[in-house]
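Forum: Protein Structure Q&A
Topic: Joint prediction for protein chains with partners

I've read a bunch of threads here and the consensus seems to be that you should model interacting components together rather than docking separate models afterwards. I'd like to see that in practice. Below is the full input, 757 residues plus whatever partners are listed. Could one of the regulars post the assembled result?
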Amino acid sequence: MALLETTHRDFANVSKIIGRHGKGQQELVPILQEVQAEYRYLPEEILSHISTAMGIPPATVYGVATFYAQFSLEPKGKYVIRVCDGTACHVRHSMPIYEAIRKKTGLRGKRITSADGLFTVETVACVGACGLAPVITINDEVYAQMTPEAAEMIIDALMNREVNPVETH
Amino acid sequence: MAMEPVVTIDGISVRIEGERNLLELVRKAGIDLPTFCYHSELSVYGACRMCVVEVDRMGVVSSCTVPPQPGMVVRTNTEKLMEIRRTILELLLARHDRECTTCTKNGGCRLQSLAQRLGVRDIRFGGGDAKRPLDRSTAGIVRDPNKCILCGDCVRVCGEVQGIGILDFAFRGANAAVMPAFNRELREVDCVQCGQCVSVCPTAALTIKDDTSRVWKALGNPKMKVIAQVAPAVRVALGEEFGHAPGWADTGKVVAALKRLGFDMVLDTAFTADLTVVEETAEFVGRLVSGDRSRLPQFTSCCPAWVKYVEQRHPEFLPNLSTCRSPQQMFGSLVRNTPVLGEAEDGTDVFVVSIMPCTAKKSEAAREEFSRDGRPDVDVVLTTHELAMMIRQVGIDFDQLPSEPFDLPLGMATGAGMIFGNTGGVAEAVLRAAASLLAPADAEGHRHEAARLAFEEVRGMDGVREASVELGGVTIRLAVAHSLGAASAVLEAIAEGKAEYDLVEVMSCPGGCIGGAGQPVPSHIEVRKKRAKALYGIDKMQMLRRAHDNPFVTALYDRLLGEAGSEKAHELLHTHHVHAGKAGSACN
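Posted by a regular:
Agreed with the consensus. Here's the joint model:
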């Protein structure tokens, strides 16, 4: 499965990103953001490479990468599903939606990414769409007034799309 | 009229005399405000909040982060402040592994002593954190994350003083922890085992690997002939463990203590330091007169953390390192591989114990190239601190001990060997020897008498000291660096062509070995200055102050080695350095 393949490490790409930003310590977060946008997470070898290239100790790069919730050191799924559990969504039963999605994607225990590498399921404190509660986001697209059943249908659709890819554009 | 530069502290007027922050001023006033994260030689971090004071019109502030201003009115001992400090301690203790009675730091832990001093009798907050695994992966340092209070002292000493940055904070909030990159073991990262993190850690989160039980076992084995070699820096620091002021030194008591513990022979690493000087000077003068500058400047190689640093981070400078083994390993090699202590008695096994001021020496002794058939030349390395532990364990009254002399021949050393323990000492010892080699001979053919003995220009405590010394018409340009941060600046200057030297001495710890991580704590700059002064004092008292004047060194060459740099000398006393690659090496 190509999605989780981590052997292909294009350091040239990373070097380009660093080249654009320069090696100042204040550039570390923007660089990590761009690298994560490229790889969907921050692979260890790339963090080490950034450390060497920028002259920042690896422990410091690791410290920054683990400090911010936006960074992930684990590979994320192709579809990142965030279930809003802010106050408004919570009182409108966001948790059953979350449970239904986890069950549908086969997640157990502490796992947040499905074995096939398609789905990562997280909660988020508030996406700022309380009027549409309960909401979920999938790769930054907002789905309003969710129910467990509706969420399952959306995931079914995504799974189908993976099995039978259709030209969308 | 300008306001008098005076601050009122608890009703007492205290004059500002260049103090950088209120904390220093409060301490000058004779009030020992508690701190975990404040070290005068590190950046101000302001994390532990123990040093809080109340300042008029400012409220409660951490005194370490506030510069003193004339007219400030400061209170350090209000009920509110006492309550804040107690609560902070409670919060720290709530997540701390409180197995004090079995903790290696028991009795020497600042968290423990402050809890006692401030009267913490109850911890209202729940712990319940899962126990995290200990890192025992290296020969010198044990890391116990369960004991960490996140003061960041280790992070700053490794980053700011050593310029390496092995440890840093990772994760955040309740999950925040200090760890190496990717939570790897110390063995798997570029740690050079200098142990400065251990030296500043207020708790047992970072400790010296305790090897005392292996020594007790050997001492209790009648078939073992257990011999000790004592490094120069140990003798000027051990007294601190028994209540003496820094700088107090009584080498004879150190020897007597080891004899009481049951060591069969007590010998002096300063002897092999003399030997190192002879070998290293011959090597240096050889490189110097050859005209080939490819291996110049010559770097000293007696500090194992420095050697590891070059191997891991600057392999381009490997040819510059002297090939000499360190005094510890020359000693081990001689004792193990030659009849220097006389023919071995049948059935007895020689067990070699080093007493060192250093955690990196433990790693050095474990290096593969210093073993033969799986048996290391030096069996166990104990630090000054571990020796003190052993002395206390058996109840020896240190102050009642008589002074006893080292055994011969390997207990005889000159002043040159003694000053190996402080920054500048190796360079000076080599200069003394080179001065003799390069001095014009007198009417009777003696070169020594004409040569200089003291080289003040390489002494002192500045991070990098440069000197140009003229010896017999040859100008020798030196750099002396202590701390790896300072060493890195020297390497950079050389690489960029901004500086040219012939000889570079590096010791990884601030102050040199006297400031090593195996030494008693605290080990700050004032303490280090006194230990260095004590070593120079010992040097001055020696009849012989040049390494090659040591009669037993001369005898060793006559009977065994031939001349300095001979094939035999290379086999026994030299090594080769190889690029260890990033993160990790064959040794740990």
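The longest strand of chain A covers residues 79-84.
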